[in-house]
Specification:
5 helices; binds flavin-adenine dinucleotide; alpha+beta; single chain; five-stranded antiparallel sheet; 159 residues
Length: 159
């Protein structure tokens, strides 16, 4: 994963703007909450092009008046384990997995904070009863495989 990002204080907080277009297979966004905001452009699978990195700061300035002094590029961030039909999984052997390790992350948009919070709760529930926790884990991930397959289909067919 290749990332271009920057943060700032935002007096419009909470606020969000997102872009889905040709510069990245994934997406770009600026979001703020509690007065703090962050702008992120990222792409899985291949590095961001120079054109893409030039485009995002300009677009934010033009659309939202958001200007940043400098940007940080983070290359080769480890991929999250969303690329397998065997995800998500709670118990490999004697372990109890949560969030990134459990694969409980939205496979299309890579949103994972909700999965982190919910799977953390489920891991704690295991202490009081494996069965109830397992049932909740399956319920929370009921549509995961469909979402994953849909993403594969969109990737294969969308230009
Ligand atoms: C660019 C980007 C944008 C994203 N945007 C969103 C979004 O808008 N919404 C959303 O829901 N999700 C988003 N996600 C995904 C979300 O951030 C992750 O799914 C979530 O943070 C994963 O939670 P986690 O607890 O598994 O891991 P992390 O949040 O990565 O926490 C793991 C922690 O363990 C620490 N650690 C690692 N190794 C060790 C060690 N040996 N000893 C001690 N500590 C260690 C790390 O420093 C880190 O603090 C985004 C991810 C990326 C990369």
């Amino acid at each position: 994963m290749d990332i271009l990002l920057q943060g700032r204080l935002d007096d419009r907080s909470p606020f969000c703007v997102a872009y889905h277009q040709e510069y990245t297979h994934d997406y770009a966004y600026y979001a703020s909450a509690n007065g703090m905001g962050v702008a992120v452009l990222f792409q899985r699978g291949k590095p961001l092009s120079v054109t893409a990195k030039e485009w995002f700061p300009k677009q934010l300035l033009e659309d939202e008046g958001l200007k940043f002094s400098d940007w940080h590029t983070i290359g080769n961030i480890a991929g999250t384990p969303t690329d397998s039909l065997s995800n998500p999984r709670l118990f490999p052997g004697d372990l109890i997995l949560t969030e990134t390790l459990s694969g409980m992350q939205d496979p299309s948009m890579v949103l994972g904070v909700h999965g982190a919070l919910v799977s953390g709760k489920i891991a704690a529930m295991v202490v009081h009863g494996r069965e109830k926790a397992t049932a909740k884990f399956h319920r929370m991930n009921r549509w995961w495989k469909e979402a994953y397959l849909l993403r594969r289909l969109l990737r294969a067919t969308h230009p």
